Amino acid sequence: MTNNSKPTKTQPNKKAVDPAMDCGSQSDKKTATTEPKCETWLSRPVPRVKRHTLPQLTAVETEPSTQCPQCHSMTTNTALIFNSYVCPHCDHHLAMTARERLADFLDQIEQELGQQFHTGDPLSFVDSKPYPQRMQQMQQKTGESEALIVFKGKLREMDVVACAFDFRFMGGSMGSVVGDRFVEAAEVALERKIPLICFAASGGARMQEGVLSLMQMARTAAAIERLRLSGVPYIVVLTNPVYGGVTASLAMLGDIHLAEPKAMIGFAGKRVIEQTVRQTLEEPFQRAEYLLEHGMIDQVVHRHQLNDTVHRLLAKLM
Ligand SMILES: [Zn+2]
Fold first, then answer.
1. Where are the domains of the chain?
2. Where would I find the CoA carboxyltransferase N-terminal domain in this sequence (predicted)?
């Protein structure tokens, strides 16, 4: 057996020494004329300890979570559901589906109305894809058959009809079936003399149905007028966002208009108005608080107080 580890001239096995830590060895080896790099142990820099950063467990890795679009904090979906989709950190009101909205609002759900109506393709409309194909995709994505959901149920002990727009379904746009369902909701409310509540969240009329979509504005307005003549209360809750033909019809014809904080409400979008008037429109233009200040709505209500507020108002109106 031969010894392979022969000492070489360059001493490769000697480890690189930190010059700051090497005062003693240098002073031993070198002559007295060379200056020592540090005088005392007090001026000697403290050797650094390498930090080991442990991966922090975030809520995402433990449970499905949602990021707040305003404060960007993560909240578990379970916590959000219990808090009615209001951010516990900054009080931002996140979007809700129509079914979640009505389940949160009503104390008891008895019946779903308007399920007999189905969308056709009256204009054989094709944009980037045919309208029936687009509808099918939306139905698969949302699990809903149309953009408006109507329930008859109870708010506390009071019988009510409540409907809500699902913004995920083609931007909550108002087509023929949305009109049909709203009119059915109004007719049931009228027949039984029970209040109608509508949670609006829509981009406006549905262009794929052309003038048939615009006609729903008149139909829904006529149904609301019949409620008014019979003294049946109709309350609108404006949620983020409400625009276009829905603002121009059923969303602004209520006996009382409530809105959620910071909801965007208008007819034309902010950018379109800016281009037309050639002015920059500052915040809070078209926000619920701005509309309240200008007398367009009656009250801005926190989502946690909506049930109580609507019930109190209805108790007075009825
Ligand atoms: Zn937040």
1. 59-94, 95-317
2. 64-318
